[in-house]
Amino acid sequence: MKFKRVMVANRGEIAIRIFRACNELGIRTVAIYSEQDKYSLFRTKADESYQIGKNKGPIEAYLSIDEIIKIALKKGVDAIHPGYGFLSENPEFARKCDEAGIVFIGPTGYMMDQLGDKIQSKIVAKKAGVPTIPGVERPIQSEEEAKEFAASCGYPVMLKAAAGGGGRGMRIVHSEEELIPSYHSAKSEAKKAFGIDDIFIEKYLEKPKHIEVQILGDNHGNIVHLYERDCSIQRRHQKVVEFTPAISISDEKRKAICEDAIKIAKQVNYRSAGTAEFLVDVNGNHYFIEMNPRIQVEHTVTEMVTGVDIVQAQLFIAQDYELGSKEIGIISQEDVKPRGYSIQCRITTEDPANNFAPDTGKIDIYRTSSGFGVRLDGGNGFTGATVSPYYDSLLVKVISHGRTFEDAIRKATRSVKETTISGIKTNASFILNVLNHDTFIKGTCDTNFIAENPELLD
Ligand code: ADP
């Protein structure tokens, strides 16, 4: 089926990113927006936009499955792209789109059932012969069970929400005394965030690196990887700066991790874009942690080095094209050859001087950078825009591309410095400190880098 109209069931920068991809392919774009997003920039970037969730809260509006599908049907939409967050990992939404005869741009509901849950995805990885972090792959039922599991894994352990995301429902536990309070707090945090409070346990790795692999799969059984990203620079388990290639791992390790990502994708006959996430421990062993069955915030760096437009690849795949075919610009494994280095910096409205509390209010000046080697994927920022407290604090993604890692750092630094945003606080000074830190320049940061270097906040 050739798409004429695509709806994006999302907002902000990712909605704009998807509209652009559709635009270039001559596909008409349809936005939905909440009451609180009435004046947001993203909706004006679509060819048509419709308000949803009139009597609902700002988040709930974007989760109104039946209403979204109803509007899509009424407006003759062929397919829905869910972006990231909101309904992107909701198998019920994927199924309901299918039932309504609308193509869901992503994996099937069944694939999401297999991979969306962290426990399930570890089971899939094990079946595929891919190493996972030692732990117990079922939800803990009682305090006693929690103690037994932890004792069998050995402290420190990590408690994790099966439905987890965004670093929520996760606790590091160093001793038995901490275990029960952490178990209950992780459980209640998970319940609040995801509506499901299943918690499991695994060994806590000290100072790992987070390396993930971009995957594309089509409806014809072809699976291709677009190499790896290093996402170790995290604050409270949330990514801040991402880059590719991961320069601190060997070529053999890169190959092994990419091959393992393919094995997992093959195990479920994966379709569309997805990311297999791994942790690499201090001894260089890698372990699969989870699969994100959707487009990710940091997909951009992979696009910069491979030249593959991942969102357009999703659109092609959803229209039944085959990976490797001429119509979609080939994209076969042999054809994917990364070139150069790319870094993405997430500029947010978080104030480093105030424990990264998100700032809100009117933007007085919004002047972004441009020039050689720089790409900006923006959301709702412009001079005069109002940043509301209702949604995530991402303002603009500054993405650089250079011939060497140093070149990519210089271009990112120049671009962040050139960006002027006033009237609202941002984390720009913090990002500049990260980019110019010796460990970052060496490319050897592990996931504790930010926590261990408080001077980054100065
Ligand atoms: P989420 O889905 O909430 O983002 P992930 O499972 O992707 O959670 O993990 C996010 C981050 O948490 C990882 O990149 C890593 O920094 C940390 N983490 C997760 N599991 C472990 C573990 N077993 N040991 C050490 N760190 C971990």
From TrEMBL:
Instruction: Give from-to of the shown chain within the full protein.
Output: 1 to 458 of 1143
**Any idea what this protein is called?**
Pyruvate carboxylase
For the ligand (ATP), the binding residues are K118, E202, H237
Please state every residue range assigned to the domain named Biotin carboxylation.
Answer: 2-455
**What taxonomic lineage is listed for the species of origin?**
Bacteria, Bacillati, Bacillota, Clostridia, Lachnospirales
* Annotated ranges, domain ATP-grasp: 122-319
Active site, renumbered: R294
Q: What does this protein do?
A: Catalyzes a 2-step reaction, involving the ATP-dependent carboxylation of the covalently attached biotin in the first step and the transfer of the carboxyl group to pyruvate in the second.
This chain's source organism reads: Anaerocolumna aminovalerica
